[in-house]
């Protein structure tokens, strides 16, 4: 399952008091550091901040007492959490009804006692705290890089931060904290030592990136691409592009240092150059760009080799150099170009940029592990869209299996594609037919991938259309052999990560032990 957010913070009890009450902290309140912020009471450790949110399956307000018992130093909760807060801490009313009255600690307060801040809306309160930290607890020279796009936000954010860290103290959003709830948590980690911050910005609807920009105040905006991710929510690809363009619209003008870094190979991103007052830096695979790449050679699991070209703005001269990076898949060239563009903008040398590109943490979501019967598993199960699935298939095509090995892909449903649902799955099916020796699909939508692969020439006996991830695991245990490459790609919502867990566990003997136990 995806990791729960548990980021480190640089905030204190004073930060919370000032941001949430609108007043100066009382003398009796010590500026106690808050080491982490937790959204799940099970993660709370002594000194932490617990934020009670209403989730889709449970309400964090039911766990306030548990968080306080585990040592939470502070809690943010809505009015329904008041009684629980009173049983374990000192309650401070920060609701709008009390906003005009000075907040006070009770005379009985003892320094170190946990404080429960009662607010009208826990998400808005998180945003107030994150914004306060961004505006009042950072250096005036801090430069924020905002990163958005339909695919590749997290890898671009990670690699860009790795490049900047070669010279600058750089903060980056932990994991994929990129939403109206996640970004404020990332902002809480900022402090006065940071020179750059690279922050991921996601969205589910119009206006969300606008709000994130108000909180983060980016000077530099990166847009990686526009694709049919969340199409079911926004309706059209044009509305997705409009939502992503909110980042470049929010940037300061060029004369104030604003810079938009745009993927020039994506026509919808290219059009955003007309929507921003910021200076535009173009990157891509075309010489029309300011920074581009060619002579791309995929070396499978050993990474990529390609040639950078950088057009010097002062005299139109072009500098070129070959690089080798341990990034997987040809799509990663765009990630490297983007990170290099930010590095050049920050004044880094090519030596520093190339050193930063060597850090494979930029591809945290793709994991390679030993699997059942001596196969190699390529785990890309964080989520799935047509573009990211085709990129994964392209990577599989670049890797040569061991002697006697085959390329096997296990592909699941791609969700939230809206009107692009049928076409998106068919495009993936056609590409799979060109790449794989054996195809397994999982789920009702995944079935259309298999059907299209058959229609595109993949032998019917090599296409297995399955209903559940358990069916896929059972079949893999029967057919996989030593030397096979097994790509597993799809959303965790349809259990694709469970496939990986089981066939890797089998490689360690866990599955065999379970089978023997069940036989008995």
Summarize this structure briefly.
This protein is α/β, with parallel strands linked by helices. Helix content is 34%, strand content 19%. A nine-stranded mixed β-sheet has the order 7-8-6-9-10-11-12-13-14, sandwiched between helices.
Descriptive account of the structure:
- By secondary structure, the protein is α/β, with parallel strands linked by helices.
- It folds into three domains: 13-126, Udp-n-acetylmuramoylalanyl-d-glutamate--2,6- Diaminopimelate Ligase, Chain: A, domain 1; 138-363, 3-Layer(aba) Sandwich (UDP-N-acetylmuramoyl-L-alanine:D-glutamate ligase); 367-519, Protein-Tyrosine Phosphatase, Chain A.
- The protein contains 18 helices and 20 strands.
- The strands form three sheets. Strands 7-8-6-9-10-11-12-13-14 form a nine-stranded mixed beta sheet, sandwiched between helices. Strands 15-16-20-17-18-19 form a six-stranded mixed beta sheet, with helices on both faces. A five-stranded parallel beta sheet has the order 1-2-3-5-4, with helices on both faces.
- Helix 5 crosses helix 12.
- The longest helix has 15 residues, at 122-136.
Give the arrangement of secondary structure elements.
Elements: H1 13-21, E1 37-38, E2 49-51, H2 64-69, E3 74-77, H3 82-88, E4 90-93, E5 115-118, H4 122-136, E6 143-148, H5 153-164, E7 170-172, H6 182-187, E8 196-200, H7 208-216, E9 220-223, H8 231-234, H9 237-250, E10 259-263, H10 267-270, E11 279-284, E12 291-298, E13 304-311, E14 318-325, H11 332-345, H12 350-357, E15 367-370, E16 376-380, H13 386-398, E17 407-412, H14 421-435, E18 438-442, H15 446-455, E19 463-466, H16 469-479, E20 485-489, H17 496-507, H18 510-519
Parallel strand pairs: 1-2, 2-3, 3-5, 4-5, 6-8, 6-9, 7-8, 9-10, 10-11, 11-12, 16-20, 17-18, 17-20, 18-19
Antiparallel strand pairs: 12-13, 13-14, 15-16
